[in-house]
Design a protein that fits this description.
Number of helices: 3
Strand order of the largest sheet: 1-2
Number of strands: 2
Strand content: 5-15%
Oligomer: single chain
Shape: elongated
Length: about 140
């Protein structure tokens, strides 16, 4: 059985479309947040795949729309990464320990253009109960 290039391109297009619709659905149902990494990754990956498919097929309006979506997603993920680095840095500075976890006051959220985050609570990972631990990738 031979798989044609057209079949591969079509399958990739469906994968990209499903990723974008999944991301939108999860945010709409409240399972993900628009500023969360899962949403941004799914949306970015879907838009990137659909961008490639649009360029291959010469569908320029769709390609341009997906270029915008890819840029917006990349900038959002950069903002999320910077915010998480600032939170980890604030926790480490507050405790002097690199393994600290901080609860940061959102009024000084670096993603909202504020200054340094304000640490309101500090814990250590090994002191937290399993139910209290939060996956930063979520």
């Amino acid at each position: 059985m031979t798989i044609s290039l057209l079949t591969v391109i079509t399958a990739l297009g469906w994968i990209g479309a499903i990723a974008v619709v999944l991301a939108y659905g999860m945010v709409s149902k409240g399972r993900w947040t628009a500023d969360g990494l899962p949403f941004q990754l799914a949306n970015f990956a879907g838009a990137f795949i659909m961008l490639l498919i649009a360029v291959i097929n010469g569908i320029w309006p769709s390609a341009l729309a997906n270029v915008a979506a890819v840029i917006i997603g990349a900038l959002a993920m950069r903002t999320i990464a910077r915010s998480r680095r600032a939170e980890r840095s604030a926790a480490a500075q507050a405790t002097g320990v690199a393994g600290a976890v901080a609860v940061v006051d959102g009024s000084q959220d670096p993603t909202a253009g504020g200054s340094e985050p304000v640490v309101t609570e500090v814990s250590f990972v090994d002191e937290l109960e399993t139910a209290e631990r939060v996956d930063l990738a979520a």
